C-alpha cells in the first residue's frame, strides 16, 4: 500500500466535526489495482441521525442565512476547493485513473458553478417574491393582501457521481444548488473515490465556517454498503434527494422515497443513450468530420460521460460504408484508457457481451488490448434499423467507450427509430438545415424524448448557464421538469409559501413592502421597494 | 324518477364525438334521495384508448396551438359555460344539494379563472424563453448558442372534485392550466354529478371547436368504478395527472402512477385540517368575532371545503370558556344543510364516531337533527393540547361541518401542537402583531407545514391570482412545489427543452431571434426581438 497524505483520515465529517468509525472501504487505483490507504469508516445509524438532526435544526431555525450569506458560502467553497487543488488532483488521479488535466479542468468547472450560483443569489432570480396587494373595495369580494415567497425544502441528501468526482460529486451542482436554495446538505461519499470526497468535504466544511453559517449546513457520510444510502433516504428529516449515477441506483433511491411515510422528491439523473442522427446530406458533405467528432465524443473520459453518444443513426447509402469505416477507425485504433473502477470496468464488459448476443447485432470492431487493471477497449457495433425498432433491449445504456450504429434503409425508418426511443438527456442531429426542413417530424419526435437537442455539435460537455436543461424524460431522469445543471437546478429545492394579510413587521424580510431586490408587484416586474 | 333536460344523454364525449355505452350510474338528489335520469355510461378500455390516442395525436403533432390560440380556447370555454349557466345550475342543484347562488358564484370563479389563464398566456409569463447566445471566442471553451423553451408535457388526466363541481371540476383550474400549458385534457367525470359533468363537457367540446383547435384537445369519460380512473392513469399515453379530492383517492392514483413502466407526475390536492391558532390577546379582544368567523368558515358549503378549518387551537385562560361557548353556539345552533352525496354523508358520520371514541376527546355540542336525506349535523369537539400531541389519529380530516378545539395549557404547548402537525394547505393565526412577535417560533413552524398562512382572516375562499399558493406539504398535496390554484398551476404541465446551436429557421417560433414577446437574453430581461 502506498502512503497517503496525512490529511485524509477516513472518517465522516458531521456538522463541523471529524467523526471516526469502523469500516473496510479502501480507495483503489484502477490502473494498478493497488489499494490506497487509509481505510474509510462506514456510517452508522447514529452518524446519520447526527448529521440529519444538525441539518434539520439549521433548517427549522431559519439559520441557513439570507441570499447574501449563502452567496458568500458558495464563493468560500470555491476558494477552499481551489486552495487544495493540488491535493485533490494527486489523490484523485490515484483513485479514479482520470488524468491530471481532467482534474484541473473539472475543478475549474466546479468552482465556476459555485460562483455562478452565488451571482444568481445576488441577482435574486428564481426566488423573486410575487405580491398582490389588497383590494378592499373589490366586488363581489375584496382581495386580500397576498405575498408569495420561496422557502427552502429542508435537508437535502446528495449522492454524487463516480464519473465526475468534482463537478457532479459532493461539491457539484446538486450541493451548490441545494445550498443556493437555502437547504443544508448531507452528502454521501462515493465509495469509488472516498479520499477525494474527504478532501472536498473538508473544503466545504471550512467554507461553512468561513461564511459564518452553522456547521449543520454540511455533513459528509462515508460508506460502501447500500444501507447507508437507504437509511439516509428513509430518514424522516430528509426533505429531498439528488442523485447522479446509474439507472439501477437512481431507480432504487426513487422507489425507496415513494415508500416513506412522507414521500420526498428524488431528482435522479440516470444517464442515457444520447442518440446522434446523421442525415444523408450532412454525411455526404462532412463524412470524415462527423465520424471523427463522434468517435472523440464517445472516447471522451473513456466513454464515462452521461452524455456519451451511445447510438448513431444513419441511412444506408453511397456514403454509409465509408462513414462506418471512418468511425470504426477513429473509435477503435488507439487504446481507450483506464476506466474509473473495477465495478464500472466489469459492468462495461458485461454490457458489451449482452449487446453482442442480441439478434442482428454485429461487432464492427474492438479497440486494442492493453495491460492496465481497468483498461477499456473501445467498441463499435452495428444493427439494422428494423432490428433496433423491434428490440427494446438494444436501448440499454453501455457505460463506456462503445457506440451502436443503427443503419436505416431510408429516412422514414430513421424517423421511426426516433419515435421508439426512451427518454434521453440529449438528442443530436448532424444535418443540413435544408434536409431537416424536409423532415420536420424528426425534430418533433426528438424534442419529445429529450431534454436538450443539438444541431451539428456533440452532446458531451454541457454548458452551465441559465438556458441549459439537463433533465430528460423518464428514464433519463425521474422528473423532466427539473434540471440538475445550470442555475435552474436551484428550483428543485424550494417551494412557494403564500403569506396572506400579514403586517409588514411579521413578514419574512423579502416580502416586506420596503424590501430591496426585484419582485413582481400587482402584475408588473419591479426592481425595488414600492412604498 | 324526474325528467331531465334533453341535452343530457349519459354518454362520453370523446374527441368531438358523443359516444354512448352501457352503465348503471345515476345522479342522485342528496336532499330527497331520488335518482335522476338518465343513466350514465361506464367508460370501456376502448373508450379510454380512443380519448388518449386522440389527445396524444394532438400533442405529438404540435396541434395544440400557439399561446394565442389557447387563450382563445380558454375564453371560448368561459363564454360557452356562461351560455348554459342556467342549465348547469338547474341540474347542479339537483345533483349536489348546493344552493343556486353557490352555482352562480362558482361559475363566475370558474370562468374568471379561464379568462385569467388566457391573459397569462398573452403576457407570456411562465413560458418565457431563456436565450444565451454563442460566445465562439470564449476560452478555454467556446459557449454554444443555447435556447430554452417550455414544451407541454402531453395529455393530462383530470380528476375533478365533488365539492366544487365547477371551479375544481372538469372545467376547473386543472383543465384550465393544462390547456394553458398546451396539454390536451382527458377529464374523468365525477360520479356524484355526472349530469353537470356532461353539460360542462359539452361546453368545453364546443369551445375547442370555436377556437379551431383539434377535437382531441378534450374528452370526457364517465364512470363510477375505480377501474376507469385506474386504466386512465396507467395508460401509456397519459403524461400527467391532476386530482382534487380525498386523501385515499389521491394517494391511490399517485401510488399507481409510481408503478407505471414510465411513471408520470401526479399532482393530488387531498385537503387538510387547516388549523386556526387563536392567541390569548386576540381572544381577549375579539372573542365573539373570532368565534363567529370560525363557525361561519366551518359551516361554509356544509364544511365541504378543502380549506375548512377543522382544528382550532387555543390557550385555556379567563376567556377560553366564553370562546368555547360562543363557538359551539355559532357552529351548532342552526341546521347545517345538505351534504353533497350519500358517500360523503356516510363518511362524515363515521369520522365523527371515530373522533368521539378517541381518548380524551369530548363532544361539546352537535347541531340539530333535521329530516333531509343527506342532512349534516354540525359538531364541536374538544381535546387537551397534550392529548392532541400524543395522538396522531386526531389529525385525520373530518370532511364536514365539524371542528376540533384543542385547548392548550399555555402558549408553549400551543407551539408544540404546531410542531407536530402534518402538512397543511393553510394555517391561520388569530393574534395581535405584538403577541406573535413574542412567539416567533409559531410562524416558523406553521410556514414549514403549510402552503398558505393567514393573519386574522379565514382560510376558506382562496384567491385565484399569481401570488396564490394552494399546495401544502405532504399529505395535503403530493408535491408542495406546485400549486393547483392561480396562474402558477400552469407550470405543473410544462418542461424545459434546450435547443443548442440550431439555425433560426429550424427553431420553434418563440426561440427565433426575431420573435416577439418577453424573454431573457444573455442574463437580462427583454421585451421583444433582439436582431
Topology, pairings included?
The structure is a homodimer of 531-residue chains.
Chain A: E1 12-14, E2 17-19, E3 25-28, E4 35-40, H1 45-60, H2 67-83, H3 85-96, H4 100-123, E5 130-132, E6 146-152, E7 156-159, H5 173-181, E8 185-188, H6 194-210, E9 218-221, H7 226-234, E10 240-244, H8 247-258, E11 266-269, E12 276-278, H9 280-299, E13 311-315, H10 320-332, H11 342-357, E14 362-366, E15 379-384, H12 385-390, E16 402-408, H13 411-419, E17 424-430, H14 433-437, H15 440-449, E18 450-455, E19 494-500, E20 519-521, E21 524-526
Parallel strand pairs in A: 5-20, 7-8, 7-10, 8-9, 10-11, 12-13, 12-17, 13-16, 15-16, 17-18
Antiparallel strand pairs in A: 1-2, 1-9, 3-4, 5-6, 6-19, 14-15, 20-21
Helix pairs in contact in A: 2-4, 2-5, 2-6, 3-4, 3-6, 4-5, 9-10, 13-15
Task: Give a quick summary of the entry.
The structure is a homodimer of 531-residue chains. The first copy, chain A, is an alpha/beta fold and 531 residues long.
Write down the Rg of chain A: 25 Å
The CATH class of the largest domain in chain A turns out to be Alpha Beta
Q: Give the strand content of chain A.
A: 15-25%
**Might you state the CATH topology name of the largest domain in chain A?**
Aldehyde Dehydrogenase, Chain A, domain 1
Structure description:
The structure is a homodimer of 531-residue chains. The first copy, chain A, has 531 residues and is of the alpha/beta class. Chain A has 2 domains: 12-127 and 141-270 and 483-491, 3-Layer(aba) Sandwich (Aldehyde Dehydrogenase, Chain A, domain 1); 276-455, Aldehyde Dehydrogenase, Chain A, domain 2, CATH 3.40.309.10. Helices cover 37% and strands 19% of the residues of chain A. Chain A has 15 helices and 21 strands. Chain A has helices at residues 45-60, 67-83, 85-96, 100-123, 173-181, 194-210, 226-234, 247-258, 280-299, 320-332, 342-357, 385-390, 411-419, 433-437, 440-449; strands at 12-14, 17-19, 25-28, 35-40, 130-132, 146-152, 156-159, 185-188, 218-221, 240-244, 266-269, 276-278, 311-315, 362-366, 379-384, 402-408, 424-430, 450-455, 494-500, 519-521, 524-526. In chain A, the strands form 4 sheets. In chain A, strands 2-1-9-8-7-10-11 form a 7-stranded mixed beta sheet, with helices on both faces. In chain A, strands 14-15-16-13-12-17-18 form a 7-stranded mixed beta sheet, with helices on both faces. The longest helix of chain A has 24 residues, at 100-123. The radius of gyration of chain A is 25 Å and the shape is globular. The first copy, chain A, starts with 11 loop residues before the first strand and ends in a 5-residue tail after the last strand. The relative contact order of chain A is 0.13. Mean pLDDT of chain A is 95; it is low at 1-6. At the A-B interface, strand 5, strand 6, helix 14, helix 15 and strand 18 of A face strand 5, strand 6, helix 14, helix 15 and strand 18 of B. Strand 18 of chain A pairs parallel with strand 19 (494-500) of chain B.
